[in-house]
């Protein structure tokens, strides 16, 4: 089971990077890249999160793209933009079939929806290492078989809003996200949607 990395040329041509493909913990089914260092400073980096489904439960695989020289990446690694696995400490637990994930606008919090266990999970991203820490609550229930999620960019006194599209129960679950802690709070009862919804977007 592998994840591949490609460089994109100015004309759109793709070239597979040295070291690619990379091993994951069986059946990769979702991916999210996060840049915690947009200003080009030395304390952050570019991290890639891959959701996969081993036999019993879901798993998260964390990688760092070598964009700066640090304790993990040498100058050669940076030149080749190598992808390095982040294994210490081990990634936190997640639910079954982690099918979709997204980050908040500040690239501080990661949210993951799991189709098999009908849950949405929340994590804080460590800026320097990409390590994930489960928030409190670590997860909340969704409708049956969530398959997609979207974050509404508007912010008010309550916070931001997260939605999951639930294919099995044909409805949409809604949550408020704290802009300071990233914590989730379920809103009112799920909203009925057309039968078997799949993707979703918010703006």
Give an account of the 3D structure.
With 203 residues, the chain is mainly β. Helix content is 2%, strand content 47%. The protein contains one helix and 17 strands. The strands form five sheets. Strands 13, 14, 15, 16 and 17 form a five-stranded antiparallel β-sheet that branches. The longest helix is centred in the middle third of the chain and has 5 residues. The radius of gyration is 17 Å and the shape is globular. It starts with a strand and ends in an 11-residue tail after the last strand. 37% of the residues are buried.
Chain-wise SSE layout:
Blueprint (H helix, E strand, L loop, with lengths): L1 E2 L2 E3 L5 E3 L5 E2 L4 E8 L10 E7 L6 E7 L9 H5 L3 E3 L12 E6 L5 E6 L4 E7 L6 E10 L4 E11 L2 E8 L4 E7 L6 E3 L4 E2 L11
Antiparallel strand pairs: 1-4, 2-3, 5-6, 6-7, 7-8, 9-10, 10-11, 11-12, 13-14, 14-15, 15-16, 15-17
Brief synopsis:
The chain is mainly beta.
The helix-strand sequence is EEEEEEEHEEEEEEEEEE
Alpha carbon gap, first and last residue: 34 Å
Mean pLDDT over all positions: 87
Radius of gyration: 17 Å
Q: How many helices?
A: 1
| Category from helices, strands and their pairing | mainly beta
